[in-house]
Amino acid sequence: MQTVRASMTTCAHFVCILADMLDSTAPPPPPNPDDLLILLAVSRSGRFTTAAESLGLNHTTVSRRIAALEKTLAGRVLSRTVGGWELTDLGRRAVLAAEEVESAVATLGGSPDDARQLSGVVRMSATDGFSAYIATPAIAALRRNNPNLSVEIVTVTRRAMQHRSGLDIEVVVGAPQVHRAEAIKLGDYVLGMYASRDYLAEYGTPTSVDELTAHPLVYFVDSMLQVDDLDAPRRLVPTMRDSISSTNVFVHVEAARAGAGIGLLPCFMADRHSDLVRLLPTDFAEKLPYWMVLRTESLRQPAVAAVADALRSQTHGFEAALMGASGGA
Question: Do 267 and 322 form a contact (C-beta atoms < 8 A)?
Answer without folding.
Answer: yes
